[in-house]
Amino acid sequence: MDALTADDMMMFINAATTSTSQREFHGGADDQRLSLDFLHDYVIGNYRDLYAAALALDINDHNAALIVRKLLETTGDATDGQRRVEGRLIARRLRALPPQRVYDLFRALRRARVNNRRTRAIIREWVAARSDPAFDAVKYRTALKGALRHAHVAPDGELGPFLFTSGHHRRYDTPLLETWRRAHYEQASVYELPYTVAEGFAAKHRIDRATFLKRIEPRMTRLERFRLQESARRGKAAVAVDLGSMPLTRLASYVLSLPVPQRVDRRGELTGALRAAAVRAAGRAAGGWGRVAAVLDDSFSAFGSAQKRRRPLAVALACHYLLAELAAEYVPLWTSGRTDALLARPHGMTPLGERVLDALEHAPDRLLIVSDGWDNAPYGLASEVLRVWRAKLDPERRVVAVHLNPVYDADEFDVKRLARSVPTVGVRDAEDVPALVEFARFTEGRTGFADLRAHFDARVAQFLEEG
């Protein structure tokens, strides 16, 4: 029974790390959503304590919000002790989520008519803890208004009239609310508002797009600059992106979005930024992994989908730069055979078996495979190579081998695995790789459920202490 629980939880954590219910290269959005919803319902129904504890792990925001929603929808199924722990985990995770994600969750709860006392208390506490209520009132006006109504909360001061009084246009003492009021008839005030709010006023005042982007740029967040880079270039208006502050995997996505000629022209700048981000991600572990050989998937399926464009390839590219910092000696092997990582693009078949053979010839201390697992040139060769290698050449498991898979397989309710002899874990961001390689030991069958449970308990305690 303990072995089954451990397998189920490993499967769920892999799914919660990789799946966002969006289309993947080998699976449609409907299949992804139905598969993930079933898995959530199965785990909360059988392992509620561990399901809630997953909020303390490195799962993605989509699944964290889904866990919170399902815990609140099933409050009546929890014991008093479970509700106390869940309440602390939910509050802590909501503080870590982007505010727009939290407001989307509150809207979902409202649509589902989830309005129990615990839900109202959690909404009230989260809203009360927001550092700038006026900012939320302007940027997330409709969402905040809906959340306050759902939680039966009357806001203090000028927020009440601003949110709930139709046609209320008197002067406000709160500077941001007053700026919002003036922006209805004064173009200069538009550029003092958050970008997403200002964009609507720019359309109202028919402000030229290039002029608007140039003047609103100081008000943009780092993520907004990143998202607007391509559209701004098409509109002949430059939006500066601070490469030095971008996380490694997001930076890799940005690099892959650039045309190849531009990557060539900016090689020094882009390579320097990727290496600097990798150094930050590696931290004190830099150089401590010995000889590392990495098989990196840049086959055509690494394109991902229209919703997750080049996401698998971005994870592989980010892992490439991170592993170069973690290793004392590093050998990268792309499935395409290319050697210039900066010019990576999705192309061709997936000869994982051949590349694994090449990697093992280098006698590494660690073998890392970053791939969606669709080994098809020829099909199944990687599995057979890894099986024979483990059974005949490395039965003592002297080499640490881990398959990192960034893609959820809806049919398998898990990420696609290459071989039973090599653990497979889901990966969201390259920055998580050191922790994931450590976590992979739970999938090898050499540790018991007690060890896995202890790991969950330790992560929960650390997570709550940090909050």
Topology:
Blueprint (H helix, E strand, L loop, with lengths): L1 H17 L10 H18 L1 H6 L7 H13 L6 H17 L2 H13 L5 H12 L4 H7 L1 H11 L7 H6 L10 H8 L4 H4 L4 H10 L4 H8 L5 H13 L13 H10 L2 H6 L1 H16 L8 E6 L14 H16 L2 E6 L17 H9 L5 E5 L10 H13 L6 E6 L2 E2 L4 E2 L8 E3 L6 H7 L9 H18 L1
- The helix/strand class is alpha/beta
Distance between the termini: 34 Å
Oligomer: single chain
- SSE string, helix = H, strand = E? HHHHHHHHHHHHHHHHHHEHEHEHEEEEHH
> Looking at the structure, what is the overall shape?
globular
Give me the number of helical elements: 23
Low-confidence stretches: none
Beta-strand level of the residues, as a percent range? 5-15%
Tell me what the structure shows.
The chain is α/β, with parallel strands linked by helices. It contains 23 helices and seven strands. The strands form two sheets. It has a five-stranded parallel β-sheet, with helices on both faces. It has a two-stranded antiparallel sheet with strand order 5-6. The longest helix is centred in the first third of the chain and has 18 residues, at 29-46.
Task: List descriptors.
467 residues; alpha/beta; five-stranded parallel β-sheet; two-stranded antiparallel sheet
Quick recap of the structure?
With 467 residues, the chain is α/β, with parallel strands linked by helices.
